[in-house]
């Protein structure tokens, strides 16, 4: 398969995802609404009592919002898009039609991943743009993030959402069911991983949790934050974080490709 055909296949999958308005709208709601609510509430608090409440924007506001977007709501939006990409053809009943055209099953799976990543990153970019608008517009004279922090924060947000999106695409292809994959991944992201990362008796085994590896690359100090802000509860080296992150990607892409190649059409 030549590059032109591969790009065309990715483009077709991207258009299919973009046309699923329910998924796209709710993904945008997930990344935009929390950021908007934060800045509105903080701005109202600051305007009513400037002494007790710091400005909504500035470095302080940016450090509060970035983990919420990058480690919580961004990945949730990524799960929605990734699971739709991985199991969308099966759910729509068109996978058999695609197979009988003679296209490689592995190529069909491979086209889903960049298409999902492209849409996921566009959605997350919208949330990050709103974060920057609030950060600078509501700074009220306080220090604002410099260019390096803004760029590092952007790369971290794209990385965090992107890796979850890839895992979601692979896992939903493995299960063949978007509802099942969506339920399992959201349960893991919101509940199971949060519980496991705080069980100290697990020791270094907690380094295998994806969210902990991703949090290692944060450009701001996350500390021992839990809940929506996420956090890094396990200390690990950069090499370990890279290996764990790559491991999750490779394993779930391999499982998704295997299932796509062997499933009955």
Kindly describe this structure:
This protein is mostly helical and 265 residues long. It has nine helices and no strands. It has helices at residues 3-18, 21-48, 58-92, 95-100, 105-137, 147-175, 178-196, 210-215, 238-262. The longest helix has 35 residues, at 58-92. The model is unreliable at 224-229 (pLDDT under 50).
Chart the SSEs and their pairings:
Elements: H1 3-18, H2 21-48, H3 58-92, H4 95-100, H5 105-137, H6 147-175, H7 178-196, H8 210-215, H9 238-262
Helix pairs in contact: 1-5, 2-3, 2-5, 3-5, 3-6, 3-7, 5-6, 5-9, 6-7, 6-9
Provide mean pLDDT, rounded: 90
The largest pleated sheet is described as: none
Distance between the termini: 21 Å
Helical proportion, percent range:
over 70%
List the uncertain runs. Answer: 224-229
Number of strands: 0
Order of helices and strands: HHHHHHHHH
